[in-house]
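Fold it.
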Amino acid sequence: DSDGSMVSTGNAISIQIRAKPSPVLLQDTLYPRKGAASDSQTVQVTAQYLSPSLTLSAFQISMGTLTKGIVSLSPLSLSLSNSACTDSLCAMHMLTFLLPPSPDGPDLSRDAGLNVSVNGQLLGTLTYSYVSASTPTLVSVSPSQMTTSSTGASAVTVFTQNFPSGGCYAVSCQGDIGAMSVLFGSSSLMWSAADTGKLLAVTFTPAQTSAAGTVAVSLNATSTRLGRYSNLAFGFQVTTPPAVASPLDGSTVGGSLVTITALGWGSVGARGSNP
């Protein structure tokens, strides 16, 4: 298919013919790209260079599975990003459709191939990642950072799911903990754990440090129920506290000695003065 234009200059005629680009599925626009294998998910993707007059009924979507063969999916909506567009060259369609929970089960992580067709012709393929519902997961850390002056004194609580084993919350994740260690950098820490709904709260006090930066933290545990080892790792941000000046005020004449205390700022490598 093509379109063209004609330009006349004196007795000469110039004809320009431009081939229309083929319709394409923009794989990078797939959102979201992954989700829990136990959950259904509405996803969206953008297609380019399709006829602006297309309707939702023209689309067919299928997914390959490991145990159920080819599964047909349900298109939900189709919208044209530019309602004034009347030609495929300017057409950008957003297609949304429903992905079911993984037909291969909630405990299997896998990449599912999706085929999107228009009127029976393959438009493109996509990849959606199902994540096992039993995978140990770090949910949140509170507080998310700490000053050097607070390390060694203030506690941190890490909320986890499916740790130390998938589905442990059905009985007790706390009761499922066998041997466990919490490492803050190279320091092994004391810890406590408690069930909170479907989450496990692990609390510890970071080792005292005078250096700011990101510290590697890891939780390592063995499940008594399954006998499996699990590990969760993350970076914890340690920051410098603000400097404190004393005294806070003085004479406008000047000449007063001011002491600035800055914990965790490292060694003083230079001195300066301001008259």
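Helices lie at 173-176.
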